[in-house]
Amino acid sequence: MSIETNRANSQFSTGPRTEEGKARSSQNAFKHGLTAQQLVVHPEQREAFEELRARYQAEIDPRGALQQDLFDELVTAAWNLRRVRLLQAGIDMLDPQFDRLQRHHSRFERTFHRTMKELKALQTDARLHAMLSHHDRQRTPFLAAPLVIAKRSQDRDRERKLAFVPPPKSTAAA
């Protein structure tokens, strides 16, 4: 085949021309979306996803940007765990894809538990921080470790005890 023939033939296979065709062909390599950089929620699953998110939101009640970021990561992991279970249910355990899905399951499970642990620590620290006196709260960074907060509180109590001088006892006879 000559170069001219090849060029002439290429004019007939230039790929999709409409926006709809381009959008469809952009998904040609899409398999399951478990390695996608963005969370995959198909339109028919949107309601189930929003329900899951709302239930977690009500239970966890994230406060602040840091907790919200961890919360979003937790919801993503929970959603993907659900998707993996559904995909695994549709294939035979001897299928090589089952092992791949199991690895994804393990990864999402680790992410889920890690973010739960981090959220719990942040929320516990926030409660401890709120319990400090106004003076200590101003001196203690919000993300200080609970042990640092406890140590400062103990040091403050020790200083108060040392600073306390009992009044002298009266020696006058009664």
Report the helical percentage: 55-70%
**Count of DSSP-assigned helices:** 7
The biggest beta sheet reads: none
Quote the beta fraction.
under 5%
Number of strands: 0
C-alpha Rg (nearest Å): 30 Å
SSE blueprint and pairings:
Blueprint (H helix, E strand, L loop, with lengths): L2 H8 L8 H7 L20 H15 L3 H26 L6 H36 L2 H6 L6 H18 L11
Helix pairs in contact: 4-5
Describe this protein's structure:
The protein is mainly alpha-helical. It has a domain at 35-132. 67% of the residues lie in helices and 0% in strands. Helix 4 (64-89) runs antiparallel to helix 5. The relative contact order is 0.06.
What features would you highlight for this structure?
mainly alpha, elongated, 174 residues, single chain
Compact summary:
The protein is mainly alpha-helical and 174 residues long. The chain has helices at 3-10, 19-25, 46-60, 64-89, 96-131, 134-139, 146-163.
